[in-house]
Amino acid sequence: MEHHSMSDKDFHARYGVTPREVEDALDENRRRVARRLSEWGYAWAVDEIMCDVAVELLKGGLRRWASYEERKPLGAFVNTLIGNRLGEWMRTERPKYRSGMTHAPLRRRKRKDTTPQREALDATEARRRIRNENNAALADRLCEEADVFGDPDSTVMSAPAGDKSSYQEWLTGGTQPLELESDKYAADMEGLRQDVTTRCKRMAWEMLIRQCLTATRGSDALRNDIRRFLENHHHGLGPSIDDYPYILAVIDKYRK
């Protein structure tokens, strides 16, 4: 692990937290993961999920979190990563989708797991619950900026968990299964991106989406503008961003 090569003091100077605080944030969220997976019938996967999130933190997540000027508590950031990883795991890596595996792997620990096992949840229902829990928990930001744009230092995907997957697919050109209502607007979002980047510098598009992901009254108006543009584009009405004042207010300063 990365912090083994530096002292606790150096680690704190770099990230603003100590290694123990990182461990505490993981432990705090581990209970949530265990509760969720136990309810869904996958309690045996807790260690796997937590290991993936720890790797995500060490391969760029902590640096990303430390770089935010107004960052949320580390535990809340870890909760965001966990929601992402749970959504991705339910979509692609639960036993149903693993080649040659049709049941949960054998437990290696000798201690008997007394957690009651329920019938395994359908992946769509699990994602719906993840989305509802995340929406209830996150008051300041729907998700972190890098959860949308991706992190080049990480091999762990930003996961499709509710509305986040729409932004992830639209902005990175992903090819997720068409399971979400918003997926049908992917081509329309690409049309908006092309319109914005034709008129403005690339930063305009990034700022547009970044502001879309903040929870303010102005962001609500911006999201409504984008939603109307997408719907009109989807129905072949040929919308122009000149008719959407909240979009223009964001991108005008980045005109070419």
UniProtKB/TrEMBL annotation:
Residues 113-122 have a biased composition (Basic and acidic residues). Residues 97-122 are annotated as: Disordered. This is Uncharacterized protein. It comes from Bifidobacterium adolescentis.
